[in-house]
Amino acid sequence: MTMTTQSRPSDDKDMIPKHLLMAMLALVLASLAVVSYGVITKRPHEGVPMDAAIVNERSVILQGGGAQAVTVLAEDGTLLMDLPHGGFITVIQNGMERERLTAGVDKMLPLRIVEYANGRLTALDDYTGWSVELGAFGTDNRAAFERLMSQ
Fold it and tell me: pLDDT (tens digit, 9 = 90+) per residue, 45-90?
């Protein structure tokens, strides 16, 4: 009985082709150059929401109830919504809860839902600095929080 050994590549061969490594280095250097140019010239940030006056705001407590469920409470603890399939509200609750866990903040503190004069609708966590532009996820998802604001 003879044993066959598998040949392994020699150590002197490159595992990653040299031209690919050079291309990756060029990409890193180009990115660094573009960012440095923006910082040095004090170029204004793109894609930052415009400041506007607050026209409506509501503080709510989002309490998770499993993978899909969420309970929405008023700041005083009054039940506003009990959603076994909370959809987008559950997504926001999960994101907020994760941020608060990372920051060591109580997950049962209120979250502010803020509507601005320019039409933006934002979820703001004053305890961690976390925020979400609710209109960025589509009109149906925004509508879920608009219903919350109207209750």
Answer: 888 888 899 999 999 999 988 778 899 999 998 999 988 888 899 9
Token pair of 115, please? 């509507």
109 — pLDDT class (breaks 50, 70, 90): very high
CA 70 to chain centre: 18
Nearest to 148 by CA among 99, 95, 97, 82: 82
Order the strands of the 131-133 sheet from edge to edge. 79-83, 70-74, 54-64, 111-116, 121-124, 131-133
Helix-strand-coil split of the chain, %, nearest 5? 35, 25, 40
d(CA 56, CA 130): 19
